[in-house]
C-alpha cells in the first residue's frame, strides 16, 4: 500500500496543476479516500489474493504446520465480522480465508427460498455473494483506517509527535481485510461453456480460487447425501480447461483450481467413457463399471449395453434411470485415479469428499496419489454433516479395542451420550478432534481446512438462545446479559452498530464535502456515545 504522505504529496501536485479550480479539495482528505479503497475492482482483488494463496501454498510445501483455514460465510456482514475478529485476536490475517459454500447459497441466498444442495439455485447468486463479501471486507478496511485517521487528527491537534509517528506507521503498514475466497461452482451449472461463463463472473467479482466437482450438473447432490453421479474424466477435464481459460482471459494467471472428487461415495456414472485403446483413461474408467460377463449374443437382451472390459465382453448394469453402476468397493481406487488425472490436467489442489473425518483414511489415499504426483495437497471439508463427537469417540474406542484395552464401560453405538463427556474416552476424543487439523496437515497433505456452513449453525444457535430468553421469563435481560453486555466486555465492535455501519465514515466525508457546514450524526446527542 502506498505511504500516506506520498499519496498526499501526489494529490497536492494534482491540485496545484488545476490553477485554483480544485482549491476546495484537501489533498489530505483525498489521500485518505484512496487508502480506504485500495482495491478498485474485483479483478484487482482476484490478482492480489491469487498471489497470496500461491505464496501460502509454497509456505505449506516447505512446512506442513503452516496450513490454512477458512469458515463458510453466507452474507457479507458475516465474512466482515469474521476477518475483523481474526485481526483483533491474532493481529494478522495470514493463512485465514473465506469459503463460499454452494450449500449455503442454495439454502439461504436463492430467490426460490431455501433449497437443497442440488444446483437448483440461480447461478448468478454465486458471483453476487462473492461481490457482496468483498464489498463488506473493503468497508472493514475503510472502517479501521477511519479510526486510525481520527486518532491521527487528535494526535496532531495535541502536538503529540511520537503518537503521530506511530499512527502514520500503522497507516502505512495497514493489513487489509481482503483475503482469498475459495468459491464453490458446484459441478459447473451446465456444460463446459456454461462453466466458463460462470467462472468469468466469479473471477470478475474477485474469486481467485474456484472449486469444481466431478458430479453430473443436472444430477448434482450434496457431497454428504446419497445418489451422487460422476462423469467420465474427459468431461471433467473439459471443465477444468474452461475455468483455466477464464482465469487466463481475465489476466489472473495465478488463479487456483480445486478439483473435487465425490467418487468415494458415488456409486453411479452418467455414461460410459470413450476409449480408443486398452489402458487409456476411458478404459480405466470403464473398468470400474459393474456388469456380467457374457458368452454370446444370446445373453444380450433388448436395450442391454455391452463393453469390452479386461479383454472380456461384459453386459454393464444400467438402472431404470439410464445411469450405470460401479462395482462395489471401487470408490477409493476411483478417487485416486480422479485426483491423479485432475492434477495432470491443470488442477492445483484436490478435494476428496469423505464420509467421516479420519486422518488415516485420508492419508492412505493421499499417499497413493503422491506416488505419481508428489506435491499433491488437499482442501478438506471439516463438514458439519459429520457427527464429530460420535466419530472421534468411536475412533478412540476402536483404537483402544485394537490395543486390547478394556472398553466394557462404553457402549460404542451410544457414545454420543452426555454421560461420556467427562470420561477418559470423551476427553481423549476431544483432544483428537482439537488436533485433527494439525494432524491432517502433517500426515495427510491437507493444505487448507474449511468448515462449509458453520455460520448457518451459529446463526440458528444464537437466535435460539436469544429467543428462548427474550420471549420467556428473562425478557430484555436476555439481550442485555446475553448479547450487549458481552459485546462491551469482549470488545466486539458491533456494540457501536452505527459506527460499524459507516456512520463515522459518513460524518468525515460530510466534512470533506461540506466543510464547516457539515451536518453530522455523531454529535453529543448520539446514543452511541454511551458505549465510550
Layout of helices and strands:
Layout (H helix, E strand, L loop, with lengths): L3 H14 L9 H9 L6 H21 L5 E5 L3 H15 L5 E5 L1 H7 L16 H33 L3 H12 L8 E4 L7 H14 L3 E5 L15 E2 L2 H17 L6 E6 L6 E2 L11 H6 L4 E3 L12 E4 L2 E5 L7 E2 L5 H14 L4 E4 L6 H12 L7 E4 L6 H16 L20 H20 L2 E6 L2 H17 L5 H15 L6 H4 L2 H12 L18
Parallel strand pairs: 1-2, 1-14, 2-3, 3-4, 4-6, 5-7, 6-12, 13-14
Antiparallel strand pairs: 7-11, 8-10, 9-10
CATH homologous superfamily placement of the domain at 25-274 and 329-424 and 437-461: Phosphoenolpyruvate-binding domains
Which stretches of 5+ consecutive residues score pLDDT under 50?
222-226
Shape descriptor = globular
Strand content: 5-15%
What name is given to the CATH topology of the domain at 25-274 and 329-424 and 437-461? Answer: TIM Barrel
Main sheet: strands, sense, barrel: 8 strands, parallel
Task: Report the average pLDDT across residues.
Answer: 92
Report the top-level CATH class of the domain at 25-274 and 329-424 and 437-461: Alpha Beta
Number of strands: 14
The share of residues in helices is: 40-55%
Oligomer: single chain
Helix/strand/pairing category? alpha/beta
- Continuous helix count: 18
End-to-end distance: 31 Å
Please identify, by name, the CATH architecture of the domain at 25-274 and 329-424 and 437-461. Answer: Alpha-Beta Barrel
Radius of gyration: 28 Å
Sheet with most strands: strand arrangement: 12-6-4-3-2-1-14-13
Catalytic activity: D-threo-isocitrate = glyoxylate + succinate
Region (Disordered): 1-25
GO molecular function, one term: metal ion binding
InterPro entries: ICL/PEPM, Isocitrate_lyase, Pyrv/PenolPyrv_kinase-like_dom, Pyrv_kinase-like_dom_sf
Amino acid at each position: 500500500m502506498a505511504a500516506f504522505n506520498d499519496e498526499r504529496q501526489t494529490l497536492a501536485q494534482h491540485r496545484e496543476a488545476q490553477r485554483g479550480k480544485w482549491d476546495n479539495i484537501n489533498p489530505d482528505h483525498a489521500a485518505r479516500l484512496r487508502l480506504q479503497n485500495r482495491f478498485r475492482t474485483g479483478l484487482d482483488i482476484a490478482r492480489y489474493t491469487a498471489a497470496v494463496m500461491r505464496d501460502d501454498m509454497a509456505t505449506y510445501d516447505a512446512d506442513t504446520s503452516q496450513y490454512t483455514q477458512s469458515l463458510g460465510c453466507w452474507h457479507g456482514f458475516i465474512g466482515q465480522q469474521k476477518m475483523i475478529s481474526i485481526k483483533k485476536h491474532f493481529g494478522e490475517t495470514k493463512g485465514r480465508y473465506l469459503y463460499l459454500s454452494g450449500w449455503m447459497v442454495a439454502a439461504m441466498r436463492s430467490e426460490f427460498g431455501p433449497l437443497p444442495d442440488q444446483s437448483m439455485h440461480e447461478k448468478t447468486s454465486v458471483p453476487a455473494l462473492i461481490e457482496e463479501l468483498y464489498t463488506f471486507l473493503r468497508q472493514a478496511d475503510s472502517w479501521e483506517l477511519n479510526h486510525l485517521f481520527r486518532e491521527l487528527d487528535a494526535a496532531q491537534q495535541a502536538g503529540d509527535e511520537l503518537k503521530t509517528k506511530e499512527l502514520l506507521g500503522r497507516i502505512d503498514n495497514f493489513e487489509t481485510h481482503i483475503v482469498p475466497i475459495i468459491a464453490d461452482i458446484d459441478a459447473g451449472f451446465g456444460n463446459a461453456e456454461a462453466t466458463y461463463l460462470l467462472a468469468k463472473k466469479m473471477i470478475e467479482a474477485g474469486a481467485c480460487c474456484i472449486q469444481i466437482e466431478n458430479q453430473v450438473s443436472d444430477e448434482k447432490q450434496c457431497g454428504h447425501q446419497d445418489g451422487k453421479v460422476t462423469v467420465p474424466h474427459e468431461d471433467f477435464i473439459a471443465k477444468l480447461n474452461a475455468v483455466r481459460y477464464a482465469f487466463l482471459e481475465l489476466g489472473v494467471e495465478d488463479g487456483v483450481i480445486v478439483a473435487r472428487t465425490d467418487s468415494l461415495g458415488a456409486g453411479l456414472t452418467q455414461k460410459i467413457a470413450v476409449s480408443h485403446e486398452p489402458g487409456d483413461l476411458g478404459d480405466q474408467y470403464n473398468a470400474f463399471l459393474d456388469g456380467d460377463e457374457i458368452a454370446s449374443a444370446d445373453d444380450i437382451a433388448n436395450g442391454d449395453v455391452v463393453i469390452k472390459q479386461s479383454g472380456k465382453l461384459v453386459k454393464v448394469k444400467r438402472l431404470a434411470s439410464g445411469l450405470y453402476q460401479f462395482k462395489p468397493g471401487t470408490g477409493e481406487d476411483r478417487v485416486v485415479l480422479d485426483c491423479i488425472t485432475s492434477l495432470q490436467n491443470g488442477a492445483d489442489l484436490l478435494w476428496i469428499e469423505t464420509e467421516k473425518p479420519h486422518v488415516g483414511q485420508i492419508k492412505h489415499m493421499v499417499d497413493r496419489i503422491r506416488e505419481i504426483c508428489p506435491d499433491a495437497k488437499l482442501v478438506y471439508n471439516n463438514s458439519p454433516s459429520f457427527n464429530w463427537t460420535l466419530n472421534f469417540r468411536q475412533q478412540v474406542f476402536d483404537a483402544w479395542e485394537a490395543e486390547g484395552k478394556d472398553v466394557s464401560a462404553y457402549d460404542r453405538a451410544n457414545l454420543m451420550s452426555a454421560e461420556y463427556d467427562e470420561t477418559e474416552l470423551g476427553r481423549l476424543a476431544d483432544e483428537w478432534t482439537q488436533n485433527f487439523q494439525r494432524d491432517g496437515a502433517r500426515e495427510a497433505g491437507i493444505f487448507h481446512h474449511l468448515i462449509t456452513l458453520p455460520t448457518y449453525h451459529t446463526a440458528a444457535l444464537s437466535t435460539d438462545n436469544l429467543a428462548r430468553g427474550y420471549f420467556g421469563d428473562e425478557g430484555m435481560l436476555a439481550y442485555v446479559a446475553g448479547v450487549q453486555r458481552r459485546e462491551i466486555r469482549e470488545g466486539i465492535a458491533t456494540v457501536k452498530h452505527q459506527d460499524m455501519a459507516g456512520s463515522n465514515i459518513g460524518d468525515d466525508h460530510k466534512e470533506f464535502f461540506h466543510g464547516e457546514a457539515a451536518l453530522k450524526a455523531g454529535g453529543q446527542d448520539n446514543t452511541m456515545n454511551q458505549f465510550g
